[in-house]
Design goal:
This protein is mainly alpha-helical. The chain has helices at about 5-15, 20-25, 50-60, 65-70, 90-110, 120-135. The protein has six helices and no strands.
Length: about 140
């Protein structure tokens, strides 16, 4: 189940499984309000995972340790309560992190004046600089 599907399920639960009641929702301050249809809203920075995390904080009284210790596994949002999707394997997460940090380091080198058109000797030196920037 995706984060948006979980939000939709939670909104239906909150409205006694009545879609018309979701339409008439009287809680526009609810973090899930914009996502209640299970679709991405047209807002500036949509983030269903952040909305779920905020809702979980609200539910347990704004205590991070209580969010961690939440025992309501029947809640549609339970798997997403940390603000991360459980649908990705650790291997996929590692690949995404590596891709992000490789791109970040390359952008730093470009901003520092290294161009993309360099000889092999310069490229070796650039790779050394790149690894040094990433590790320290």
């Amino acid at each position: 189940m995706s984060a948006l599907q979980s939000i939709r399920k939670k909104c239906l639960w909150c409205s006694n499984d009545q879609p018309k009641e979701v339409l008439r929702c009287q809680s526009p301050k609810c973090p899930l309000y914009e996502y209640r249809w299970g679709k991405m809203p047209k807002i500036e920075k949509p983030s269903p995972l952040r909305a779920i995390r905020t809702k979980c904080f609200d539910c347990v009284g704004f205590s991070p340790s209580d969010v961690k210790d939440c025992s309501d596994s029947a809640c549609a949002l339970h798997a997403f309560r940390f603000g991360h999707s459980p649908n990705y394997s650790e291997q996929t997460k590692k690949k995404q992190r590596d891709r992000y940090f490789d791109g970040l380091a390359k952008n730093r080198l470009l901003r520092a004046g290294f161009s993309r058109d360099r000889s092999e000797d310069e490229a070796e030196h650039t790779e050394h600089d790149l690894s040094r920037m990433v590790t320290g």
